[in-house]
Design brief:
Layout lengths: L6 E2 L10 E3 L2 E3 L5 E3 L4 H8 L23 H15 L3 H14 L4 H18 L5 H21 L4 H20 L3 H21 L5 H16 L13 H14 L4 H14 L3 H14 L4 H13 L3 H16 L7 H16 L3 H13 L7 H29 L2
Antiparallel strand pairs: 1-4, 2-3
């Protein structure tokens, strides 16, 4: 599986759509997404057309039985499913079990790293970064060791490419852009190598397809140059292939299609895909975020307000390290309700937004939204007061 999810608010790949509001123009929620797959981020890195060296370890170089162990496949799928529905402790336990079963197999380390990354992005808390790096580096070391002795092993190339892509995403988040972009290019190299070695490694087509779509999308103004061909259709076809035939990436591929349809402004198609994801993974925030945003961007404001309110309730049920995502949800409910002319509800969620503690580390990121919320609150109060006065006999 190329990656778990792009989450809704990644700092490096935002899709915005301006909406008229009482405070001027407000930007749409940035994607995650994913709730995500690292694929989009190294796709973004590829736009620039620009190795991390690890010490040798003395573990076995035997090739894992990629296709013949039903128990391992079952555990991987259970761990991924647990991650998608925010059961992170369960997914950690499952992947730790995989590592204990075979310390020389990259899969346990990779999916543990993917689960950690998904949790960090979901909760906007990167305190588990050391654990992520430990597992992602171990994935790279084992995969490269296998490739040294078996250079045509498609699955080893897949895990190497996926791990490099995750590593790149983490480095870009840490503002280490040059190194991140360099590793992103290594990631796409190994994913391409995976399918050239074994065309049945369908999980790799998600990463390659995502790369092709977004690289073409973000360089479409240069498509007249031979170095920048338009591969959006090819990329989309590869993502759909991964959704149909991959071992572990079906849910992630579906999530990616939601965001692509949103990018194409096909709001109803995005909604259908997101609802399909929620039917498979009830309560998954990785599908709730794009569903809510598709409602919002498509001007289905009543449904958007309800969807973001549901997301907010999901966060408030958990013991979170900060309230960033909860605040974002309240902000979006306030906006959606305002555009739906439900000024009482908008006022309620403006106050709810302002009630959240604002950690110093997040003050700058939330400062603009707080200013907007205060203006929307003021506008709501004016409208409600005016309505009250006109209703007096």
């Amino acid at each position: 599986m190329q990656g778990l999810f792009k989450f809704q608010k990644s700092a490096f790949f935002r899709r915005k759509r301006s909406v008229n509001s009482p405070v001027g123009k407000t930007s749409g929620i940035a994607r995650s997404s994913h709730f995500n797959s690292a694929a989009v981020y190294f796709a973004f890195a590829g736009i620039f057309i620009i190795g991390f060296l690890t010490p040798n370890l003395s573990f076995s170089t035997s090739v894992p039985n990629w296709n013949g162990h039903g128990k391992i496949d079952g555990l991987i799928r259970k761990g991924i499913d647990a991650t998608i529905v925010q059961k992170y402790n369960l997914s950690y336990a499952i992947f730790d079990m995989l590592i204990a079963m075979n310390p020389d197999d990259p899969r346990g380390y990779f999916y543990k790293a993917a689960a950690i990354q998904s949790k960090m992005m979901d909760r906007e808390d990167y305190s588990e970064g050391k654990g992520f790096l430990k597992n992602i580096r171990k994935t790279i070391r084992i995969s490269m060791k296998i490739l040294k002795n078996h250079p045509d092993d498609g699955w080893a190339s897949f895990y190497a490419g996926s791990a490099y892509s995750y590593y790149a995403l983490y480095l870009i988040h840490e503002k280490k852009y040059f190194k991140g972009l360099r590793l992103a290019q290594k990631g796409i190299h190994y994913l391409n190598k995976a399918v050239s070695s074994d065309s049945t490694v369908y999980d790799a087509y998600l990463g390659i397809g995502t790369y092709e779509y977004w690289r073409s999308r973000k360089t479409q103004f240069l498509k007249w140059l031979p170095l920048f061909p338009d591969k959006k259709k090819e990329g989309l076809a590869k993502i759909k292939l991964a959704m149909e035939k991959s071992k572990y990436a079906k849910g992630v591929s579906l999530n990616e299609l939601v965001w692509i349809e949103m990018d194409r402004k096909n709001w109803r198609a995005a909604i259908r895909f997101a609802e399909r994801g929620l039917a498979q993974y009830p309560g998954s925030r990785f599908f709730q975020w794009p569903l809510a945003e598709a409602y919002y961007q498509g001007h289905f404001y009543y449904k958007a307000a309800n969807a973001f309110a549901q997301l907010l309730d999901s966060y408030l049920k958990e013991d979170l390290p900060n309230h960033y995502n909860a605040a974002i949800c309240a902000y979006k409910v306030a906006l959606s309700a305002f555009f739906d002319h439900d000024y009482k509800r908008s006022e309620e969620y403006c106050r709810k937004y302002l009630s959240f503690p604002n950690p110093q580390a997040l003050e700058k990121r939330l400062a603009k939204k707080e200013k907007e919320i205060r203006k929307i609150l003021s506008e709501n109060q004016k409208i409600l007061k005016r309505k009250a006065n006109t209703s007096v006999p």
